Amino acid sequence: MRKPLTVSEYIAKAPQPAQAMLKKIRATIRAAAPKAKEGISYGMPYYSYKGRLAYFAAFKDHVSYFAMPGHSIKKTLSSQINPYQTGKSTLQFPFGSAVPVALLKKIVKTRIKENLIKAEKK
Q1: Where are the beta strands (DSSP E) in 1-122?
Q2: Has this prediction a pTM greater than 0.85?
Q3: What residues does the YdhG-like domain cover (predicted)?
Q4: d(CA 4, CA 11)
Q5: Are 61 and 95 in contact (CB under 8 A)?
Q6: Tell me: domain 7-117, CATH 3.90.1150.200, correct?
Q7: CA distances (Å), origin 62, targets 14, 99, 115
Q8: For residue range 61-102, what is the model confidence (pLDDT) as tens digits?
């Protein structure tokens, strides 16, 4: 089976229980970062704006959101991300759970700020 070439194709090929969650994550990222570039990288949906913003993917029993490592995310949002955090910059949402839209918007906006600061330093 060929790998998906677009985010829409990725979502359509994902397990049924993941599809609504993936659509919600996609819409959240697009709302928080309307100028972000959308694509597929490492076989999963990817968003960038002045640098990497986020990836997300469906797995056997959950959806993962990969926020690119950012020091300010850990500092400012640690109490909010702890219930979902499974790795350095990975949040997991079991199938059927609510996607924390407000939290994801904060993470995306924080990543945009970090990327803009980095871009200014170059």
Answers
A1: 37-41, 44-48, 52-58, 62-67, 90-94
A2: yes
A3: 19-112
A4: 9
A5: yes
A6: yes
A7: 11, 11, 28
A8: 999 999 877 666 777 788 888 888 777 788 999 999 999 999
Q: Name residue, tokens 């993962």.
A: 64
- Number of other CB atoms surrounding residue 18 within 10 Å: 21
Give Cβ neighbours of residue 46 (< 8 Å, ≥ 6 apart). Answer: 38, 39, 40, 52, 54, 55
* 45 touches 24 (CB < 8 A): no
Q: How many residues would you count in the chain?
A: 122
Neighbours of 87 (CB within 10 A): 10
Q: Could you tell me the residue ranges of all domains in the chain? A: 7-117
Strand ranges across the sheet with 52-58: 37-41, 44-48, 52-58, 62-67, 90-94
